[in-house]
Amino acid sequence: MQKPNERLAGQTCIITGANSGIGEAVAHAIGMEGANVVVNYRSRPEEAEEIAHNISQHSKCGDAIAIRCDVSNENEVLAMFKKTIDHFGTVDICIPNAGLQKDAPLHEMSLKDWQYVIDVNLTGQFLCAREAIREFIRRGMRPEISKSLGKIIHMSSVHEIIPWAGHANYAASKGAIVMLMESICQEYAPMKVRCNSIAPGAIKTKINTEAWESQESLNKLMKLIPYKRIGVPEDIGSTAAWLASDESEYINGTTIFVDGGMTCYPGFTQNG
Ligand code: BGC
């Protein structure tokens, strides 16, 4: 169990898709830094409630609640922000993390599956970032709490730059996150908003079970990871906690790759 720290004391953070995988680890890491945490989920409330309960029990000075919301639905996102502000007073950090894959060869991909992935992975991140910025502006600076007006951390992927055959909808959604994140930075950094992305590589979660469930697939995966280990959700949690804190204050408009070197194209080690 991580030792409670207090880099985010007095702040409130919404993490979407926080009832499992990367989102769960991020919620936990942010909670252990003393922030109030909203554990967002769309289905399986019992997981989210348990995570929120666990964070409240172990945090030195923060609290946690679970809120249901489908991030692709505008009214539900508005309601989630309203509930958060009613409960905790404001939002200081927003981590739009909810994401999914609906894989298919492009010539077999239905419009429905294309749209579904774009709605959740891209539009969901837009809606959450927009509401966060509205709240940052409404609330104004609190220099005793943070040097920034607010922080947005988009959960991207190595596939914001690595093309991915059979996953065009997913890769397109992540590629678009780069421009969303950089445009937000350009537009709101003068108001002291920090907007960055984290781009995880292969992290052992339910989304990519196929990539690690057998020794054979794991061996194949290792060819793509120079550091020769699969990532764990905590690798992303610790990065998010630091990126949300004033320790990284001057980092703005960039993507931090947490991928064991996957974006260094290890396929070229003995080729090319
Ligand atoms: C995907 C995973 C994949 C990883 C590396 C992630 O964004 O969701 O399924 O294992 O990228 O390719």
Description:
The protein has eight helices and seven strands; from the N terminus they run βαβαβαβαβαβαααβ. The chain is of the alpha/beta class. The protein has a single domain, classed as 3-Layer(aba) Sandwich (Rossmann fold). It has a seven-stranded parallel beta sheet, with helices on both faces. α5 (168-188) links the parallel β5 (150-155) and β6 (193-200). α1 (21-32) packs across α8 (233-244), α3 packs parallel to α4 (111-139) and α4 runs parallel beside α5 (168-188). The longest helix has 29 residues, at 111-139. The model has no long low-confidence stretch (mean pLDDT 97). It binds beta-D-glucopyranose. Beta-D-glucopyranose (BGC) binds next to loops.
Q: Helix/strand/pairing class, anyone?
A: alpha/beta
Order of helices and strands: EHEHEHEHEHEHHHE
CATH architecture: 3-Layer(aba) Sandwich
Q: What is the assigned CATH homologous superfamily?
A: NAD(P)-binding Rossmann-like Domain
Number of structurally distinct domains: 1
Task: Identify the strand order in the major beta sheet.
Answer: 3-2-1-4-5-6-7
- Total helical elements: 8
CATH fold-level label: Rossmann fold
Ends distance: 44 Å
Overall pLDDT: 97
β-sheet strand percentage: 5-15%
CATH class: Alpha Beta
Shape: globular
Name every ligand kind in the structure. beta-D-glucopyranose
Number of strands: 7
Low-confidence spans = none
Q: Oligomerization state of this entry?
A: single chain
Q: Round the Cα radius of gyration to an integer and report it.
A: 18 Å
